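Continuing the series of single-chain predictions for the mutant panel. This is the parent chain; the variants come on the following pages.
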Amino acid sequence: MMKIKLSHLLKSAVITTGLFLANSFALNAQDDTGKNLEIVENVIENIQAQYPIEDTANELNSALSKFANSPGFADLDEASFLEEMNAVMKEASNDLHLRIATAEAVEQRMSRAGGRRTPTMRRVARGQAYQPLGTSKVRAEMLNERTGLIDFDSAIYRNPDLFADALDAVASADNIVLDLRGVPGGSVPGVAYFLSQFYAEPTHLSSRYSRRFDRPQELWTVETPHSKVFADKNLYVLTNKRSASGAEAVAFALRNSGRATLVGEKTAGAGNAGAFVDVGEGLMLFLPISQTIDPKTGKAWEATGVMPHVEVPADEALDAALELISRST
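Parent structure:
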């Protein structure tokens, strides 16, 4: 990927935005049109500066600029503006992460994802660190005397105590079934720490391209209180088309390292990790800022998804995994 200084990108974004939006700024800045134009400008600037795929960033910004100068733009209320803007970004990028919404809607969605406490939104700003996300919902049980099930009912965040409780509940099993069907994502620290439970030795799981750094950032496992115990267990991962983002990162790493057998459906294809950006007027943009790749092949799963080893309908995945386990005995 071509390296460009952030200051140059920002300067270019401002110039490009000015060229495309010059005709529109003649409108009254106090009305909804002026607010919407300012939001589009902020979105373009952030995409140009931080979106990890440069060619896609250029396509997005061209599409957004045309949207801002399109007939009927001046008549859009907030709901219509958000709907059409998301449609424009989806068509230009096919990026499942890239979306704009009201801060209130984001807070409500995040509050439904947490467990014992409401998670805070993850925000990103230049020069600032991430804020942590909240608690995962995870349960574990023994399906029989040799097989345990770990099932996430929310995104995968870094919660060592919850992970420890789940692992302790299935510690006697020889086989572990990890159910990621419908899991919508997770945080990078959460994914990395959870994956670390299944490797005895330091393992390079993935790398991430980002404009924030001069070189790809490597993601490695760390030693945990359970890693030496669970590293020897047979691992089966259940996926479906709604397994997305952080859940896909788990499946991606386990598959590429040969650590697990994947059973079910191809995953969603949301491979660009991101964070929330305030773009003004009470609106938040979830902006992809890095792309995860396999360190051996350089391939990503963005837009393509992660393929299972054994492809079956989602509602048959658990039975199929149990059948594989029975054959291995």
